[in-house]
Amino acid sequence: MSGDGDGAGEQSRTLHVAMLARVEGEASMRVLVEAGQVTDVELRIFEPPRFFEALLRGRAYTEPPDITARICGICPVAYQMSACQAIEDACGVTVPEPLQHLRRLLYCGEWIESHALHIYLLHAPDFLGYESAIELARDRRDVVERGLALKKAGNAIMSTIGGRAVHPVNVRVGGFYRLPTAEELNGLRATLTRALRDALATVELVAGFEFPDLEHDFTYLSLRPAAGYPIEAGQVVTSSGLAFGAAEFDAHVSEEHVAHSHALHARLDGAGPYLVGPLARYSLNSAALTPLAAEAAAAAGLGPVCRNPFRSIIVRAVEVTCACEEALRIIGEWEGASAPSVPVEPRAGTGYGVTEAPRGLLYHRYQLAADGTITGARIVPPTSQNQIGIEHDLRSFVQARLDLPTDELTRQCEQAIRNYDPCISCATHFLDLTVEHREPGSRAHRQPGSGAHP
Amino acid sequence: MTGPVLVIGVGQRDRGDDAVGPAIAQRAAGLLPAGVTVLERAEPAALIDTWAGAALVVVTDAVRSGGQPGTVHILHACHGPLPLGTGAGSTHGLGLAEVIELGRALGRLPPDLVVVGVEAGQFRLGEPMSPAVASSVELAARAVAEVVSTG
Description:
The complex is a heterodimer. By secondary structure, chain A is α+β, with helices and mostly antiparallel strands. Helix content of chain A is 42%, strand content 19%. In chain A, helix 4 (97-128) packs antiparallel against helix 14 (406-418). Helix content of chain B is 28%, strand content 21%. Chain B has 5 helices and 5 strands; from the N terminus they run βαβαββαβαα. In chain B, strands 2-1-3-5-4 form a 5-stranded mixed β-sheet, with helices on one face. In chain B, strand 1, helix 1 and strand 2 (37-41) form a beta-alpha-beta unit. In chain B, helix 1 (20-29) crosses helix 5. Chain B is globular. Residues 86-92 of chain B have low confidence and may be disordered. Chains A and B meet through helix 1, helix 4, helix 5 and helix 6 of A and helix 3 of B.
C-alpha cells in the first residue's frame, strides 16, 4: 500500500489500494470531493465473465462446468454448480437427491476454504491493526495457523468430492464422474470435527473485533431453500418481499452499462442498489442456520438481521460453522447413490441456474440449440451485483474520514471494500484509488489512477 | 537431495502471460527424472499446504519486477525475502511473494525453495502469452531441470 500526497491540504491525491495486488489497471476507485463533500464514488472493475460468455457460445452443453470454473481460482465450485443447474434446467433434468447432497457437500468445502482465506489472510489483519497476514503470523501464529487449518479442511472436501482442490475436475452436467467411497467420506469426519471447533473459535475471535459504526439500508437478495441455509439451491428472495425462481431473475434484475466501468451494474426492478453475499444470506435466512451456528451467532450478538457491513466478518465465521455442520450431517446421512450421474440429453431451450457463491448469488443462463450447442450465455457474478452498494458504502464512509492522512484513509478504504470480499479473480485485481478535490469555481485537479484499462 | 521434489506451476492459463507458470511446469515435466511431482495451482495461498513435507520445491510463475518481458529470474527463497514487491505477477488474493513470506513467518517453508520466474508483459484475459514470454518457456524449463538435478 502506498499513498502519494500528504493529506487534507492538497487539491488532489491518489491512493493506491493494493488490497488485491497483482494486475494493475483492472480495478480502481475514484472519489470526487467538491467543496468538502464527497459527491461521487466510482468503482471501476473489469469483468471476465463477459469474456467467458463469448467464449461459451458455440461450445457443447457439457462444457460450461469446466470452462466457467476457470473464471475464478477461489470459487470454481460456485461456477460449476450454477452452470450445471442451468444446463440441467434447459434439458429438463433434475438430479436425484443423493447427488444434490453431494453437490451441497462439495459447495460446503468451497465456502469453508474461501471464507477462511478471506477472514484470516485478508480481513482479520485489518481489524487487528496489521499490514498483512505476514505481520499477523509473526505475532499471532496460532491465529493464522487456525485459519490455514480451516482452509485445508475445505480443501480436503474439495479434493475428495471434486477430485482436485483447485478447479475440481469431477463435476459434470448430470452429477459427477465418480462417486466418493463411504470410506473416503468417513475419512473427512475427523478433519471436519476439528474444523467445526476452529470455526466456533473463529466466531468468538472476530466477534471481539471493533466495528466502525456504519449501517446501510440496501435491499438484500439471496436464495432461500425449502429447508436449511441457502447454498446450492433455493428460490430468490429479497428483503423487500419479492420471491421468484431462477427463470424470473432477468425480469427482476436489469444490468446497465455505466460509463466508468467495464462491469455492468445490476439493479433490482429498476430501483436502488441491492446487495448479495453473507449479510444478505444471513439476514434473510438466520432462522435456518444449523444449531451450533445459530448459537454462535447469538453469542456474537448478531441478531436476526445484520446491516453493518464490517460485521460481515462475523457472518462469514458463522457461515463457516454452518458449512462444517452441514458437511458432517451430509456425510453422516450418506447412504450412497445408484449412479454417479444421470443422463442429460440436449434439447433446444433456455435454462437458468442460481447458487450462493461465498461472495453472493451467482446467476447463469444458457440458451441451447437442439443438438446442445450453446447459442447464448449470461453470467451475473456477485461482485457486479454489489458494485453500486460498495460505491454507496464508500461514499458515506469516505465523507466521514476526509481529514485522515492519505495512508490511513487508504487503509480504511481497503478494509471497507474487503467487507464485500470482491471476487479476486472474477472482478478485481489491483485497485487504484483516486480522490479528486474540486473547489467551487476552480478547474478540477485530478490525478487518475495509474492503471490502463484493458 | 533426499525427500520428495515438487515442481508447481502457478498462474491462470486464460490470462496472457500469467499462463507462463503452468507452461514452464508442463514443459519441465518432460525434462525431469521420474519421481518428481509436477502440479499446477491457480491460487498461491494453497502452496503452504501443497509443499508440506517436500524437500525441494521449485515454483514457476510470472514475475513483474520492471524488467524486460521474457527475462528469466531464478530466485532462492530460503535465504531471505524475494526481491519482489507485491507486483509479482499472479492474479490472486495473496501473491507468491506474500505466500512465501507467510510460510517463512510460520516456519513452514520447505528446506529448499526456488522460484523460476519469467518477467511478464501483460495479463489480458483471453490473450495468448506475449512472444517474448512464450519463447522463454524452454529456457525456464531447463533452469527448473537444472535446479532439480543439482538440488
